[in-house]
Amino acid sequence: MKANIVKEASMQRQKDMIAAHFELLARAHETGRKVVYTFVPGNLTELMLAFDTLPVHPEINALQAGMRKQSAGYIAEAERAGHSEDVCTYVKCDIGMMMKGNIGPTGQKLPEPDLLLLSYTGCFTFMKWFELLREQYECPVAMLHVPYQSTGRAEPAMIEYVVKQLRTEVIPKLEAVTGKAFDEDLLRTLLGNSVLAEDDLVHVLESAKHRPSPIDAYFGGVYYIGPLFTAFRGTPEAVEYYRMLREEVDARQAQGLGPITPEGPIDDERFRIVVEGPPNWTHFREFWKMFYDERAVIVASTYTKVGGVYDRGFRHDPERPLETLAEYCLGCYTNLDLATRVEMIVGYIEDYDADGFLINSIKSCNSFSAGQLVMLRAIEERTGRPGCFIETDLVDPRYFSASNIKNRLESYFQMLAQKQTGHEPVEAAS
Amino acid sequence: MKCWVGIDLGSTTTKALVVDDTGAVLGRGITNSRSNYDVACEIARNEAFLDARFTLFARALERHTDLAAHAGLLIESVRLAFRSEQHLYLLSELEAQCRAFAAELADPRRAKAALDEIFEGMREVAASLFEPGTKPRSDFFRDIAGSQYMSLAEGVAETTKLPFETLLGVYDKSILAVESHVPASSLQDLIERALEVALGSYRISDALKADLRSAVQGVVEMQLVETQTVGTGYGRARLPFRKEFIRSEILCHGLGAHALFPGTRTVLDIGGQDTKAIQVDGRGVVTSFQMNDRCAAGCGRYLGYIADEMNLGLHELGPMAMCSRRPVRINSTCTVFAGAELRDRLAMGQRREDILAGLHRAIMLRAMSLISRSGGVHEEFTFTGGVAKNEAAVSALRQLVEESFGERTINISPDSIYTGALGAALFAVREEFAEAGAVSMAAGGPA
Q: For residue A425, is it within any domain?
């Protein structure tokens, strides 16, 4: 199946949006727009946009560097500067990129930050990361501490605590950096846009419940979450993008078409899989191929919830602008306790009628990986569907052993096939 | 006669197994995987077909009223005589290769004298290698010939004033050529000669001898048709089969273990580069599995490395570890660091036996974590793969399984190393019938 490459209009639209954003970033200093570096989980994009700042996401730059085969060089650079082999490879990739001139994924130089907005949800490393950036750029940090949801619920006291920090720490710092006053009405308007896009994203992700699934909710899903999880949530462009995407997916579903892959669509899905954990970015295509070659479609994934868990009912609420931002931060996937994560994956396996699930454990990301083996057993016990466990890394190519991973996945798919056919094996007579 | 073949291309050894249409094992073959899977595959397959002829020979004798009683002994002496003939054949190939390489050396005259002496010594020992009751140091010609050559070459280097390294170099180049050379079909010759050798020590009537010769003739002439082959193991992608005829070793070990011990619910396989813990259902269908990730610490190769470091044969490790009185606690199972750990411990004055016992336990501790990860041991447990032949490894495993899961039935087959190939062969039989089914369905079903 060669060269049957389908480029949907929404893909092009997203590309244009990203290019325009990096263009704005490249010219930020001449246009006088303020630049805020921040993280994807618990990002306060609507708030940043209400102050007309431009967001930069170091994790996204790192994963882009991984996909463009530049991360190995950046990581080596950071290790030469003394960072340990065991440190989060997003961090090292970002530090290395900074040391080599801070050239972003589009080849343009990224502007220096005017503010580091550190809302850290479930990842302690984020704090250390921005400490390093603060040292480098000598700029202010606005710190938003988001309590861990150890009970599986956002308690009222937690919400109150986060809202208080928004009022006393984050908003004043944004005001100081931009010289603009906080405009709550503008924030409400942006949040209203968010809801529209969020509705459409959920519709797209849930299309995978259909057989055959019209999307791949992991390898395709990472593209679908792009605008909503980064600089565009709350913008009319994002609303428009998700409307387009929804129409395309609806059309595929109506025609009974399967997901698009780099080597053409999968119209005869064989396995339906749920995936826990981020993808490997350095060998993204190669990793994906191991699935589509076997006609395995990912019908749901937890990674597409790191920038917001929308399919369990949460929507931004323009009527309660600060409370809703607090609830959003608290509810990000990495901030959830193990029991809730197990609950979510069990729900996915059942609701999307999956044959099994895969845990892609990330070598250098403890906030994702700790506890995954316990989750594996719990999910297997509750669903009776088998799990597969592999280890890779985010952007360090040294930790992607293609032959080992392929061997494991092949065994796993053959096991699923054996279960599907229910063949009686031939008995040996002696 | 129709046969089905399973081939397991492991990282250390390649195994082939031939079954009949009932799934009963006819023959087994094993060889070093070396760097050439194609050759390894060919050699193991040839050996398995050869072995199959011995099984068919045994079946023929068992059907003969007067010979049935002698069948077991007769077959064993023919087999030993055959192995001896085969060894002599390989030895002559090796000698020819060595002489060819030696002729290109700076001092060919002296090299020739050295080889004369070495090969004379090797031929002398060869006769006694396959006498009844002897246990070879290894199953492979490379290992047997190698250790003899080395020890003889040491003395010869002294007397001929030729550097030992030079002689070693000649051997290293030659053994590669001999191993990578698939012998021409001399089966009939070898087997007939073996029969005559075996008959020499037997007092039976000429009429029975004639019957025996004709039974051998019948078996040698019988056509064994390789109906379908299924491949598994690390090198499986190298096999020139369609994708449907390649199975992961997980499935093959699960099915193979089930075939050997139908009560099996948990399987542990320790291979050269990976350790697999597999859970199967009552039909041998895999329900879950776990493998070592990224790092091959504590796998079969670890033992090979330790054996090399201690200058021992692989087969000698287990028995030596079993002599331990106070096993040493060893934490690292990193193969790369193993040499350093070993030397360190020896320097501390610890006994080799105790260190080896500790190493075996360390490997099994790692395997236990995979077993737990895959779901634990709740019913019958089968240990497969080459390491299952090692008594110290088995003893450590028994102890750890009991400590962690209570008393459990632990099955170990003497042919455990062939478990993956057996599973593959059984898949081959099944594929054949599944395909036949598909064909008849496409044609409108059986009339």
A: no
First to last CA, chain B: 26
Does B104 have pLDDT greater than 80?
Answer: yes
Contacts of B191-195 with C-beta under 8 Å, sequence gap 24+, read B191/B53, B191/B78, B191/B82, B191/B216, B191/B220, B192/B216, B192/B220, B193/B81, B193/B85, B194/B78, B194/B79, B194/B81, B194/B82, B194/B84, B194/B85, B195/B78, B195/B81
- pLDDT (tens digit, 9 = 90+) per residue, A166-184? 999 999 999 999 999 999 9
Task: Check: CB of residue B307 under 8 Å from CB of residue B321.
Answer: no
Strands B380-384 and B286-291: unpaired
DSSP string, A308-335: --TTTT----TTSHHHHHHHHHHTSGGG
Is residue A426 domain-resident?
A: no
Question: Percent of chain A at pLDDT above 70?
Answer: 96
**By the CB < 8 Å criterion, does A420 face chain B?**
no
Beta strand B275-280 with B286-291: parallel, antiparallel or unpaired? antiparallel
Which residues 239-258 in chain B show a CB within 8 A of chain A? 247-251, 255, 258
Give the model confidence (pLDDT) of B389-420 as tens digits. 899 999 999 999 999 999 999 999 999 999 99
Q: How far apart are CA B142 and CA B172, in angstroms?
A: 10
- Strands B25-32 and B13-19 come out as antiparallel
Number of structural domains (chain A) is 1
Mean pLDDT, range B48-54, rounded to an integer: 90
Residue A427 lies in a domain: no
In angstroms, rounded to a whole number, what is the distance separating the alpha carbons of residues B58 and B310? Answer: 41
Query: Residue B51's Cα: distance from chain center in Å?
Result: 13
Interface A-B: count of C-beta contacts within 8 A: 82
Distance of CA B280 to the CA centre of its chain: 25
In a domain, A200, yes or no: yes
H-run or E-run covering B98: helix B71-102
**Residues B250, A418: C-beta atoms closer than 8 Å:** no
**Token pair of B163, please?**
């550097």
Q: Structural domain of residue A219, as residue ranges?
A: 1-419
- Asked if A401 is an interface residue toward chain B (Cβ–Cβ < 8 A), one would say yes
Global confidence as pTM:
0.85
What tokens does A376 get?
Answer: 């594996």
Kindly report, residue by residue over A364-388, the tens digit of the pLDDT.
898 899 999 999 999 999 999 999 9
Who contacts A241 (Cβ-Cβ below 8 Å, separation ≥6)? A10, A13, A14, A17, A197, A227, A232
CA distance B331 to chain A (A): 21
pLDDT at position B170 over 60 = yes
List, in sequence order, the alpha helices (H) in B161-186.
164-179
Burial bucket for residue B187 (CB in 10 Å: 0-12, 13-18, 19+): middle
B211 three-class SS: helix
Cβ within 8 Å, pair B426-A407:
no
Q: Which of B417, B427, B41, B386 is nearest to B236 (CA)?
A: B41
Domains of chain B: 262-412 (3.30.420.40)
